[in-house]
Amino acid sequence: MAVMGASSGFAVSSQAPCAPPSLARRGASGHEATNDQQDAAFMSETGFDVIVIGAGPGGYVCAIRAAQLGLKVACVEKRDTLGGTCLNIGCIPSKALLHSSEHYEEAVHKLADHGVNVGPVTLDLERMHARKGEVVSANVKGVEFLFKKNKITWLKGEGRITAPGQVTVGDTAYAAKNIVIATGSDSINLPGVAVDEKQIVTSTGALELAAVPKHLVVIGGGVIGLELGSVWRRLGAEVTVVEFLDRLVPTMDNELGKAFERILGKQGFKFRLKTKVTGATTDDTGVTLTLEPAAGGAAETLQADVVLVAIGRRAHTASLGLAEVGVAMDDRGRVATDGHFATNVPGIWAIGDVIAGAMLAHKAEEEGVALAEILAGQTGHVNYGAIPGVVYTWPEVASVGETEEELKARGQAYKVGKFPFMANARARAMGDVDGFVKILADKDTDKVLGAHIIGPDAGTLIAEIVLAIEFGASSEDIARTCHAHPSLNEAVKEAALAVEGRALHI
Length: 506
Ligand code: FAD
Ligand code: NAI
Fold this sequence. Notes:
Layout: E1 11-12, H1 37-46, E2 48-53, H2 57-68, E3 73-77, H3 84-89, H4 91-110, H5 125-149, E4 153-156, E5 159-163, E6 166-169, E7 172-181, E8 185-187, E9 200-201, H6 203-206, E10 215-219, H7 223-234, E11 238-242, H8 254-267, E12 270-272, E13 275-283, E14 286-293, E15 300-304, E16 306-309, E17 313-315, H9 322-325, E18 348-350, H10 361-375, E19 389-391, E20 396-401, H11 404-409, E21 414-420, H12 425-430, E22 436-442, E23 448-455, H13 458-470, H14 475-479, H15 490-499
Helix pairs in contact: 2-10, 4-5, 4-7
The site of flavin-adenine dinucleotide has 37 residues, from helix 2, strand 3, helix 3, helix 4 and helix 10.
């Protein structure tokens, strides 16, 4: 293997890997303390303190935080741009299209109601995609700027762990005291439904469709299916969602899920629940799907112009050399970690979509920060009970903490407070009255255990309750907090008041 000089000058030969960190040298927190003077001097001569593999929100944030804490950091990324799935083909381009398509729908269907008359509205899909590209480009360049600012070395190419303490990129091996696997996830394929990213697409293809399909069939009534289904429905497609289970976004609080289905149905979504897709054929005219009841029964066919397969994502661990270095995986093919992101191999850690837990950008980021702090000898920590989940449809759906079903299942006595946006003055002024806020609190202590919101800007409103849960607040704490009038946030206050049966405006 070549001993190439990288821009950092830290390339080493594969024969001289940096020794893996000794388990005997743990910091006060019980985690590896890597920032003592001796180590720093050693590493600056022979390699990096940390090499992060993958520059998604988990990896790039971990790299930045580690650099802030004085560690010498490299990040390996095989894409041409930084930012991972989230910035390139996930959160950001999907939200750009959601926002643009919302404007289009408003112009076509809603502005006249506000007394704003516009001439015939036309769709310039090419411009919409171009704008999305500009948004993505600005974001990924922003991460590149942050790497330069924090003196993080970007090792361009595919990273492979060739030994504990050694990462190989192309022909060059780099030594690192700690290696962080942050390689994210990929779409799950459905047997019998071959993706070509034109007629049968994953989310990546669905973000790039060159024309609005007449009929889009989405397989999977989860977050991707409903967000991207919303984009194309707003732009004029008929959208049918085929979902295996009896409800949408199955992890969602049931009451919220039912309201969500009803509201999306009113918007024109068609749902085929308890149904599975068992095959697909394509020709010039479109796609023919074979559908069967989930519980078994007679098959039928459904025609589509485009089919979006959105049945979940799986950890991306291919070509990393994990089996060779002995990194253990869990039963779902994710990198197995302890509560502090350590794998079973000393000095190899993992965060983000590649490990257990919600596949969310902000969860990956929190883990990135916590791990960087652990690697610097601090006590990094993630509170998994206070991670919000948001579906960016309109209305938005947002949740944090436990659902009513989860509380029942663990025998927790609880109180419920609910408040509809119909009774919120600001929502009425906006003309967005669908949905409600629901707060769940401990029956005895009143501590907030969960909150579930469907309604305008739910994704922003949930932040208040995330903070409440983080601080261990009670519903009364929220109820006694002054909320500006007229604001959507008043619906949160009213729901908190409703926990004690004392909502004022209903
Ligand atoms: P990723 O972002 O997947 O990054 C991993 C990176 O590692 C990739 O850039 C990959 O190229 C690189 N890589 C992999 N293997 C190697 C290797 N061997 N060498 C070098 N580089 C490698 N989450 C939200 O919270 N909010 C949203 O609104 C949201 N919207 C989404 C919309 C879509 C369409 C999709 C698909 C996902 C969305 N997500 C959203 C999920 C979010 O994108 C992920 O949870 C998040 O990106 C995970 O971050 P990560 O750092 O773990 O991995
Ligand atoms: P998902 O897990 O949200 O939903 C997949 C859905 O497909 C489930 O409802 C499941 O029951 C269904 N399903 C599975 N197999 C099926 C089959 N054979 N036939 C029919 N239905 C089937 O997964 P999705 O939507 O692909 O998203 C992947 C991940 O990306 C999610 O975990 C999510 O967290 C993340 N994401 C987050 C977003 C956000 O935070 N706003 C936006 C988009 C994605």
